[in-house]
Task: structure prediction
Amino acid sequence: MKKVVQLYEAGLEEYPVRDVIAGNLTMVALIAAGTLACWFISPAFGIAYAALSVVMVYVVMRRLVCTRCHYFGKRCGTGWGILAAMWFTRGRIEEFNQSAGVRLAPVVYGLMALLPLVAITVALLGGATTSKLLVLGLLLALSFYSMGPGRRRACSVCKMRLFCKGSAAK
Ligand code: SF4
Result:
């Protein structure tokens, strides 16, 4: 595990605003598609999914991950470093890789994609409709983009890419 903080010299000190907008639009679209998928099972499930996702992504994970990141208080690829600095105090960057947030991130984002996929599959087994198929397609496309090319693109120009154990750009 990497313990010495080594920043990527060629990384961006601040990401372009268009990246922040695109990153948040993708996340909001993913939560909206996930909510619709869960709604097909029951409205209460949909509301619970939406509320939990928003709280985890925009509050809990920001406290657990961003407070120890180089981009705390700065415009990272999603702008969440600025969001975190509005609510929390800075932690030690040396503890970034050992933080609960970095360990929890794959579980949280994995469940956010997996739960709705299971829900929409169950809903489709009860009878396929165009709206269910559209939600499934949207979920698959958004999950693939945010976990694959979108993440690799953000990590490739991140100052943390050499140190962060979650980096998708090795
Ligand atoms: S390397 Fe990637 S996962 Fe790690 S802090 Fe940077 S953008 Fe986030």
User: Anything to note?
Assistant: Residues 41 and 122 are 8 Å apart (CA to CA). Helices lie at 17-39, 43-64, 80-87, 100-125, 130-147, 149-156. Residues 69, 77, 154-155, 158, 160-161, 164, 166-167 surround iron/sulfur cluster (CB under 6 Å).
